[in-house]
């Protein structure tokens, strides 16, 4: 049995990106003033969230749909939905 590295596993991921984000940061002021550690930039495994000085940028196209940001944001400041039907991540097993 072969063991794949994380990089090899990520290579198996494919994305069918929608033009509209399924992730929304509701209040950017909360990120700026109440969340000094910008926790979403830490717990998101796909590095979707990037703090750009005054605003959280959301690279929704690379979302793995793990759902962590539904519970990980201490201020419930992220609106999370599944991507529209037919869009989003595609997992391949080999
Ligand atoms: S974890 Fe929530 S409050 Fe903190 S920076 Fe991310 S979206 Fe903003
Ligand atoms: S669902 Fe998971 S991968 Fe997608 S943005 Fe949230 S934490 Fe990141």
Account of the 3D structure:
The protein has 94 residues and is an alpha+beta fold. The chain has one domain (20-85): 2-Layer Sandwich (Alpha-Beta Plaits), CATH 3.30.70. The chain is built from four helices and six strands. It has helices at 6-11, 28-34, 40-43, 68-72, and strands at 13-16, 23-25, 49-51, 56-58, 78-80, 88-91. Strands 1-6 form a two-stranded antiparallel sheet. A two-stranded antiparallel sheet has the order 2-5. Strand 3 (49-51) and strand 4 (56-58) form a beta hairpin. The mean pLDDT is 88. The structure holds iron/sulfur cluster (2 copies). One iron/sulfur cluster (SF4) binds at residues 25, 30-31, 35, 38-40, 49, 56, 73, 75, 77-78.
Distinct small molecules bound, one entry per kind:
iron/sulfur cluster
Total count of domains: 1
Strand order of the largest sheet: 1-6
**Helix and strand run:** HEEHHEEHEE
Report the average pLDDT across residues: 88
Rg over CA atoms:
15 Å
Task: Report the end-to-end length measured between terminal Cα atoms.
Answer: 13 Å
Number of helices: 4
Morphology? globular
CATH fold group: Alpha-Beta Plaits
Number of distinct beta strands: 6
Based on secondary structure, the structural category is: alpha+beta
> Could you name the CATH class?
Alpha Beta
In terms of per-residue confidence, which ranges show pLDDT below 50 for 5 or more consecutive residues? Answer: none
The proportion of residues forming helix, as a percent range, comes to: 10-25%
Strand content: 15-25%
Q: How is the main sheet built?
A: 2 strands, antiparallel
Per CATH, the architecture is 2-Layer Sandwich
Domain 4Fe-4S ferredoxin-type: 54-83
Keywords: Electron transport, Iron, Iron-sulfur, Metal-binding, Nitrogen fixation, Transport
Pfam family, one: Fer4_ETF_QO
GO molecular function: iron ion binding; iron-sulfur cluster binding
């Amino acid at each position: 049995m072969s063991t794949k590295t994380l990089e090899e596993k990520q290579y198996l991921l494919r994305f069918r990106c929608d033009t509209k984000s399924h992730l929304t940061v509701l209040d950017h002021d909360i990120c700026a003033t109440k969340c000094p550690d910008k926790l979403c930039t830490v717990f998101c495994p796909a590095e979707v969230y990037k703090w750009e000085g005054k605003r959280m940028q959301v690279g929704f196209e690379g979302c793995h749909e793990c759902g962590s940001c539904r519970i990980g944001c201490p201020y419930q400041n992220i609106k999370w939905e599944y991507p529209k039907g037919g869009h989003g991540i595609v997992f391949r097993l080999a």
